[in-house]
Design brief:
Distance between the termini: 24 Å
Shape: globular
Strand content: 5-15%
Oligomer: single chain
Largest sheet: 2 strands, antiparallel
Number of strands: 8
Length: 417
């Protein structure tokens, strides 16, 4: 959501914070597509990026998933924060982890992630796009999203085994947290504001039936929360027909008509339990140092695309082509004055911060009181902008070229898709 402009705005802000301590440093980028091309899903065990004294172990071999050696072992999260999790830690309110350090895991309730990863092909396709709208979507999703998933993980769901009937895999399970976030934002999931101690049942999130009346789990998922877009990743779920109003009807293969409702009840209960995720799978991902090396990698791709816009015109109309997640598909919920036993009013609309001329929170990059909208930041990030406080040393993707993806192809007129 505003992935390019917003993330690069606070990446610049972060770099300037570092330079306030040491003016000679620059924020590096990690070409994770090249590492994935070379090592695949084993990159966390092979890439030098994950040396304990560099960015820390990719997947620590302890139950908590925290760093126990190297430069990050003593780093602690802010505690006793007002808007943190139930333990007062600076985490998403629904993420009930007690560990006082940033957490990395790669398992989804015991299953290793094996979904799509942003290798060279994904970044090559991003460079070869014809519109900013499509580029925004690709960078936000396949261009880097799986990196967050690979190092965030998810565990502690209430009844994850019940999802096997849906054809669950580690790849499909990795989307459960996206569904949980959508349900939480719309008010279906409620989480406690405090907790007596780890493991206590009162610490868990749930979907109170008092908020939804007589609606079935299936009706909530399909008709109210509108999260069924994600069900296509479950191999045993099929859309059987299109209703008169254009809504798809979903059916779990291998489950009798009489048992369909019970299956969806269990699915809904599991998604509502949320479980826990590592920082990279949540809004607290900036707490993980890995976060800060990911987004400049995407910025470098955009620079290369914009530098070659003369040979291959780029439609720079703002948007997110084909987006399906709640934040960018146009559902806005008003939480003003909503009580514990009430639901917010959710309507079609654009979320604040996603519009072309919505203002960003990052200001004063140039020290002149400058402010920015999404469009203004996009213009500021132009590689030819003389005020841009950084530049990239080169635009070479040698490992990708060896894998058959030559990023120099965009320099040929008419080569964009």
């Amino acid at each position: 959501a505003g992935i390019y402009t917003q993330h690069m705005a606070f990446s610049i802000e972060f770099e300037q914070s570092l330079q306030a301590v040491d003016p000679t440093v620059a924020l590096p980028y990690w070409d994770f597509a090249a590492d994935l091309e070379e090592w695949g899903l084993a990159l966390g065990l092979a890439s030098p990026v994950f040396d304990p004294d560099m960015l820390g172990e990719a997947w620590p071999e302890n139950e908590d998933g925290v760093q126990t050696k190297g430069r990050w072992s003593d780093v602690r999260l802010d505690a006793n924060v007002t808007d943190g999790n139930v333990y007062g830690l600076l985490r998403s309110p629904w993420n009930a982890i007690t560990a006082p350090q940033f957490v990395r895991k790669r398992l989804f309730d015991g299953r290793s992630y094996a979904g799509g990863v942003p290798k060279c092909e994904a970044h090559f396709k991003a460079v070869m796009t014809e519109s900013l709208s499509e580029l925004n979507l690709m960078l936000n999703g396949v261009g880097h999203g799986p990196i967050h998933v690979m190092f965030g993980g998810q565990w502690g769901l209430s009844d994850v085994k019940s999802l096997d009937v849906f054809g669950a895999s580690a790849s499909s399970l990795s989307l459960l947290i996206v569904m949980s976030k959508d349900l939480w934002r719309q008010g279906y999931i409620r989480c406690p504001s405090s907790c007596p101690g780890a493991g206590d049942a009162s610490c868990a999130c749930e979907c109170p039936s008092s908020l939804t009346g007589d609606a079935t789990a299936y009706e909530i998922l399909r008709d109210r929360a509108h999260v069924m877009d994600f069900m296509s990743v479950f191999s045993n779920v099929e859309s059987t027909r299109v209703l008169a109003n254009g809504t798809l009807e979903y059916h779990v293969k291998g489950v009798s008509d009489e048992d369909q409702g019970a299956a969806w009840d269990r699915f809904y209960k599991t998604v509502c339990s949320v479980g826990q995720v590592g920082e990279m799978s949540s809004s607290a991902s900036p707490l993980d140092p890995l976060f800060w090396l990911v987004h400049p990698t995407l910025d470098r791709l955009v620079h290369w695309r914009r530098l070659n816009a003369k040979q291959n015109p780029l439609n720079e109309t703002w948007g997110y082509e084909g987006a399906t997640d709640l934040a960018t598909r146009g559902i806005v919920c008003d939480w003003n004055g909503v009580g514990d036993d009430e639901m917010p009013q959710c309507v079609a609309g654009d979320c604040e911060g996603h519009g072309e001329f919505d203002e960003l929170h990052v200001t004063n990059i140039l020290g002149s009181g400058d402010t920015y909208t999404n469009r203004g930041m996009y213009d500021f990030l132009a590689p030819a902008n003389a005020d841009l406080p950084y530049q990239y040393a080169h635009f070479r993707w040698d490992k990708c070229k060896d894998a058959g993806f030559d990023f120099d192809a965009i320099t040929e007129p008419g080569s964009a898709e």
